Amino acid sequence: MKALRKFLDKKKPLFEKGGKFAKLQSTFDAFDTFLFVPDHTSKTGTHIKDAIDLKRTMSVVVMALIPSLLFGMYNIGYQHFLSVGETAPLMDMFVYGLIKVLPIVVVSYVVGLGIEFAFAQMRGHAVNEGFLVSGMLIPLVMPVEAPLWMVAVSTAFAVVIGKEVFGGTGMNIWNPALIARAFFFFAYPSKMSGDAVWIAEKADTFSGATPLADAAALVDATPAQAESLMSGALSQTWDMFIGLIPGSIGETSTLAILIGAVILIATGIGSWRIMLSVFVGGYAMGAIFNLIGANPYMELIPAWQHLIMGGFAFGAVFMATDPVSATQTTRGKYIYGFLIGFLAVLIRVMNAGFPEAMMLAILFMNTFAPLIDHYVVQGNVKRRLKRVKVKA
Amino acid sequence: MSEVKKIKKGLDIKLIGKAEKVLEKADRSETYAIKPTDFPGLTPKLKVKVDAEVKAGSPLFFDKYSPEINFASPVSGKVIAVNRGERRKILEVVVQADAEIQYEEFKKADPNGLSREEVKEELLKSGLWAFIRQRPYDVIAKPEDTPKAIFVSAFDSAPLAADVDFLVEGEAEAFQAGIDALAKLTDGKVHLNINPNLNQAKMFSEVKNATVNKFAGVHPAGNVGVQIHHIDPINKGETAWVVRPQEVVFIGRLFQKGIYDVSRKIALCGSEVKTPCYFETITGASVRNILKGKLKDDEKIRVVSGNVLTGKHIPEDGFIGMYDSQITVIPEGDKFEFLGWAMPGLSKFSMSKSFFSWLTPNKKYRLDANLNGEHRAYVVSGEYEKVLPMDVLPVHLIKSILVEDIDQMEQLGIYEVAPEDFALCEFVCTSKIDVQDIVRQGIDLMIKEMS
């Protein structure tokens, strides 16, 4: 490693001000600090620092996403072979999924990081680690049949409009990965709806409807239709929990997502407050619908089932918890999370046009996060003022 | 018996090198210095020139804006240097000590029999006033104020902190006299805050003329700012004064003996010290003789006057800070680490459990001064809240300081905080933001705007 360090130290002046490649300073710096934690020591303030940095934080989140990614790959293969009616060994399913998913991951990272580097260079900033996570989240919320160029355009849109225009990582107001998905959803709706996009090379004869689509169909169903729908994919709750259902690449397996959640909570990096309150909010709305029971969807889908369908769990664990776009105050986190879960189920059931409402609910609450924080901050200010008045 | 306030938010950082309660002899330091930079916001005016002869208690300089506040020489001898920095800012006034210390004579008296004005005058004249600090702002107290209360924290919870009981052992009478003097200065109470888990000395638990409060829990339980927040928080327009136990003893000695005697024990600690222990010395002493032969010499080191969270980096022949009772020596750590952010990290300490060192909760660490990363914008939220046991929203306060919004700073509690209360926030910060510096900037701005 000493040789590598020596090499980097020798090349460093070329990239510094006045050097031949000064324009690539951020790029060099990004690689240098990736390979070596720099020798910077504290100049003022505390003389010792916690070992954690943003690279560590982000890599823990990526690690927490790995179960979902791996399971997603397997499930892509599983769904494909199921639809064409073949049986295949586990490894074949996984490799099939790997071949399908890997290009999407690569496109997301190459496009996103390319833009990040370019912006950092333009501004003369260090390259921020934020995209390491976004770059993994984007493929996981894409349908497997998403054309690569669409993934590229969505990613570019998310990084430029979702993040860089606000000043980069830490400054954005919406979750960049969800911006990518929202862009995709509204720009290329045909590629993110219907039954065909969720299963790779689906046989036409195979229905392959997602449980969410089936549930949405319940709204105007006659009792007989409702019964047949309820005995289809919707009755396979165990499959839904494990994740053997069609859906976006990484969102199907509640189990894999929960493993990720455990990693995030145990390391203290993800906010358990947000995760918990999203689930509570979703359950609460589901329970209210159960009580109202105005149509078969409200009546027949138990509240807890909302939590394992579609992107609910994935959104709760990985999307809502993005610390930059979420609320920042402790109390605010409970309110923010609860409203996300509440709204997601509300939109899901009330608006058949948006069966996957989690994305919209989170983006909507991202928008309102500063407002929630504002009220929490005002609460703190009021307590302080009250103290003075009590004395006076 | 008052109830124990348990501080739950915070963090005990376990480091290698806690000082053994043994008093070792070191060669007497030859030079002593008072550093105006130890007093935030001070504009010093010199009273002596180089080569002047001074006694212990003779003023070396005073506060330009409160000329009655003097800063006295800790020993007798000759002023040998006035070291200046950029724009001729005075950094150190150095005194070469005589073999035998000559003291300026002040009035001996029982403080109980004196009036407030007399106590004040003695403290100002002798230079001991500089040890009385105020909240808000964490600066030297203004003599014209009458504080609503005076707070003394009788324990220190900082990493490797000196044992306060050991520091003032055998000084019970001087301590009580000091408390008596302080009691004269306020219409309210003198609060003495102890930790019931430390089995503290009777001079604290059975103190007269003061109210004993009990605090337990993790650092910053021993920070006086945190204690004030839980006992009697500071509102706009109020002031409270704070003094540390050793300094209470100095005040007591003034009234008992009529001299400016600022000799104190200090702890020499840290992972780079061979045998961490205590030394008898005098405030402002050069650390050269104390460190001589005591350090492990395997790598570049950093000497800190004070603790690793709030102390100042001093050279190996530098001087102990005015308010410090410990010297901590840690490795400098100015080295690159290959893929350091990706390693399991068994020897890395983190509040988060993202390093596997959380498997060994009682392990003591040898931490260096490396930043362990780079400066970034705020990304992670909720970190500061875990280590700040106050009803203050730390990140919002920091941001209001950064945009210099005076009203917002006031509303969010700038009067209640001192940089040291935010030291742990700075330690745990993933984005490596200089939180203490920012808080100090905010305080400086408030002082400027409010005066």
TrEMBL record, chain A:
GO biological-process terms attached to the record: respiratory electron transport chain; sodium ion transport; transmembrane transport
Modified sites of kind FMN phosphoryl threonine: T210
EC number(s) recorded for this UniProt protein: 7.2.1.1
Record-linked Pfam families: NQR2_RnfD_RnfE
Cofactor(s) of this protein: FMN
Keyword annotations of the record: Cell inner membrane, Cell membrane, Flavoprotein, FMN, Ion transport, Membrane, NAD, Phosphoprotein, Sodium, Sodium transport, Translocase, Transmembrane, Transmembrane helix, Transport, Ubiquinone
Membrane topology term: Multi-pass membrane protein
Catalyzed chemical reaction(s): a ubiquinone + n Na(+)(in) + NADH + H(+) = a ubiquinol + n Na(+)(out) + NAD(+)
Residue ranges that the Swiss-Prot or TrEMBL entry lists as coiled coil: none
Any one cellular-component term (Gene Ontology): plasma membrane
Domain of life of the native organism: Bacteria
Keyword rRNA-binding on entry: no
TM regions (residue ranges): 57-74, 94-119, 126-142, 240-267, 274-292, 304-322, 334-351, 357-377
Family in the record: Belongs to the NqrB/RnfD family.
Physiological role: NQR complex catalyzes the reduction of ubiquinone-1 to ubiquinol by two successive reactions, coupled with the transport of Na(+) ions from the cytoplasm to the periplasm. NqrA to NqrE are probably involved in the second step, the conversion of ubisemiquinone to ubiquinol.
Subunit structure: Composed of six subunits; NqrA, NqrB, NqrC, NqrD, NqrE and NqrF.
NCBIfam families on file: nqrB, PRK05349.1
Entries under HAMAP family matching the protein: NqrB (MF_00426)
Protein name: Na(+)-translocating NADH-quinone reductase subunit B
Organism listed in the record: Marinifilum flexuosum
UniProtKB/TrEMBL annotation, chain B:
EC number: 7.2.1.1
UniProt GO molecular function: oxidoreductase activity, acting on NAD(P)H, quinone or similar compound as acceptor
GO biological process, one term: sodium ion transport
Keywords annotated in UniProt: Ion transport, NAD, Sodium, Sodium transport, Translocase, Transport, Ubiquinone
Catalytic activity reported: a ubiquinone + n Na(+)(in) + NADH + H(+) = a ubiquinol + n Na(+)(out) + NAD(+)
Domain NqrA N-terminal barrel-sandwich hybrid: 6-98
Uppermost EC category: translocase
Pfam families recorded: NQRA_2nd, NQRA_N, NQRA_SLBB
Domain NqrA second alpha/beta: 114-258
Na(+)-translocating NADH-quinone reductase subunit A C-terminal domain span: 266-313
Function field: NQR complex catalyzes the reduction of ubiquinone-1 to ubiquinol by two successive reactions, coupled with the transport of Na(+) ions from the cytoplasm to the periplasm. NqrA to NqrE are probably involved in the second step, the conversion of ubisemiquinone to ubiquinol.
Subunit structure: Composed of six subunits; NqrA, NqrB, NqrC, NqrD, NqrE and NqrF.
The family this protein is said to belong to: Belongs to the NqrA family.
The name this protein goes by in its record: Na(+)-translocating NADH-quinone reductase subunit A
Biological source species: Marinifilum flexuosum
Lineage: Bacteria, Pseudomonadati, Bacteroidota, Bacteroidia, Marinilabiliales
